[in-house]
């Protein structure tokens, strides 16, 4: 084979890559020729011997199931006939939230190639994702290995690059410490919500971040709930489990939220008769009594009262307590060394028992000023301000969805960005749920916030949402888009985000003089170009 030479300006494989000089030159030449970077015509996948798909398994790379609003049954239907790794991707909650430490495609690839053994990291997907991944994982050893692409032999024969551990605070596997500074309630009066502005000191960890990033928080379980569970076990809180007391293990290490299948398996071993059959059915994802969706760990113990698993076996049957991710609502450029979140405290009642969100109430009431906690910064996956500071931005963030857009505005102020800024914000009531009212009004007065459009769903007889306000101002929205504006959504994936996108399609059709199909294509093109970005949950 004739060795191809490279112009000195084209360096795809860096000099410090873990290849010999000959291997590096060959790979550089191969990639330049394949991609057409030397002025030649780029080779098709068939011409250069590479099968379709990054793993040579015939996949076309498209992921129509990658929609956070789509039910898992619909996602799996779309993925039928695709390679195993792609069906695993469809099983996930499709938010690329990073909470698992991956994006959805990389997590599924890692499970399929056995480099990741944990099947329960998709927090948004919960039990239904874990069950489907477990089912799909049974196929792993039945799937033949994909044929290597041309040139892969040279890569495979090179020494493996040493695994680089992320710096402290840059990944969930290696968190840093932050200091909790303060919280203050953002709601007023008779609000039905309980939302806090929460601040942290990052100076000791020296962590920084970019607006659009998320903040991972390792919360702790409520001590009152833990002690009730210990009482149901009939155990002592000082019982040793994994070199900790039972109380410490239940507070710090395991999830007490939805009861996992393994817990029902354990309960089936230590009970009998109808109770055993019921526990087995629950472990298989069945719902014999119609209450499976409401069974957290405490409710499961109450349902099978009198069964007292050994504390160590009990803890082993539970899922690890996962960190929670929150959109950052501050700018490092504006307040270096400090970081803030906008957090809704989750509280609800099932039966007669009050239940709470683990991290939201941890931040809203249980952590004290000056306390340390484990944290990390999760880099944004395709969500951030445009590189050109002159580009206008339209931000749609009702409720806590305002968080990243407060950060955007503070950052644009700190950096002197000249682009126009338009914020759509909404909530239930204007008198008690107008988060950051004084701050936003000051931004509007100063000219930083070019437009502030509000929508209150409970102020009038008819509910009125941000998407309704968008339609009302559709001509101006279209004008901004025609001027090159980037549009952002943050908030609920299943309702708000889809309603906003539908409104956007209608606006493009009406004021851009397009058919509905053309408007849908226009919005899809905005997404491909990075001009329409979403941070949804």
Automatic annotation (TrEMBL):
This is assimilatory sulfite reductase (NADPH). Its cofactor is FMN; FAD. One of its GO terms (molecular function) is sulfite reductase (NADPH) activity. It is an enzyme of class 1 (oxidoreductase). Keywords: 4Fe-4S, Amino-acid biosynthesis, Cysteine biosynthesis, Electron transport, FAD, Flavoprotein, FMN, Iron, Iron-sulfur, Metal-binding, NADP, Oxidoreductase, Transport. CDD domains: SiR. InterPro entries: 4Fe-4S_dom (IPR007202), CysJ-like_FAD-binding (IPR003097), FAD-bd_FR_type (IPR017927), Flavoprot_Pyr_Nucl_cyt_Rdtase (IPR001709), FNR_nucleotide-bd (IPR039261), NADPH_Cyt_P450_Rdtase_alpha (IPR023173), OxRdtase_FAD/NAD-bd (IPR001433), Riboflavin_synthase-like_b-brl (IPR017938). It catalyses: hydrogen sulfide + 3 NADP(+) + 3 H2O = sulfite + 3 NADPH + 4 H(+). Residues 80-139 form the 4Fe-4S domain. It comes from Bradyrhizobium cytisi. GO terms for biological process: cysteine biosynthetic process. One of its GO terms (cellular component) is cytosol. It holds the Pfam family FAD_binding_1. Residues 173-386 form the FAD-binding FR-type domain. Its EC number is 1.8.1.2.
